[in-house]
From TrEMBL:
Entry GO MF terms: acyltransferase activity, transferring groups other than amino-acyl groups
A Pfam family reported for this protein in Swiss-Prot or TrEMBL: Acetyltransf_7
Domain N-acetyltransferase, chain residue ranges per copy: 18-154
PANTHER family: FAMILY N-ACETYLTRANSFERASE, PUTATIVE (AFU_ORTHOLOGUE AFUA_6G03350)-RELATED
Name this polypeptide is given: GNAT family N-acetyltransferase
PROSITE patterns recorded: GNAT
Swiss-Prot/TrEMBL keywords: Transferase
Domain of life per record: Bacteria
UniProt organism field: Pedobacter puniceum
Amino acid sequence: MGIIKTFMNDDTFLKKGFNISTDKSLLDFEAIFNFLSQESYWAKGISKERLEKAIQHSICYGLYHQQKQIGFARLITDESTFAYVADVFVLPDYRKQGLSKWLMQTIINNDDLKGIKRWLLATLDAHGLYKQFGFEPLKAADRFLEILTPYQTH
């Protein structure tokens, strides 16, 4: 994928009190859990234990406004050849400001991830966002197989 065109200027957001960090100690676990388990379509019903483990084993990007968690993304990767982008969200009150683009730009341009051969993600409704960063439908979808086990909701 290489370095992508810069869509969003970091300073524009920083001056408005926004910040992105991979420091897991800053994450507001309850805010992340509440959004993913109750509001998202992809992780509805996820348990706290499963999410804690997922966060522990991922590179996490917290999106903050004046130290309040307003967005999140996880990257599951070997940091060399493969990366899967998961659990990307911006809270509804903060949407339509370019923050999801800024978050994705920050992930894709991370110096520690240069040279990744394959980036993957799954989305129901954000194709337009991800296409701006070079994502496209699988060229050889017949080569990819999956086991999909939905979370058990009680």
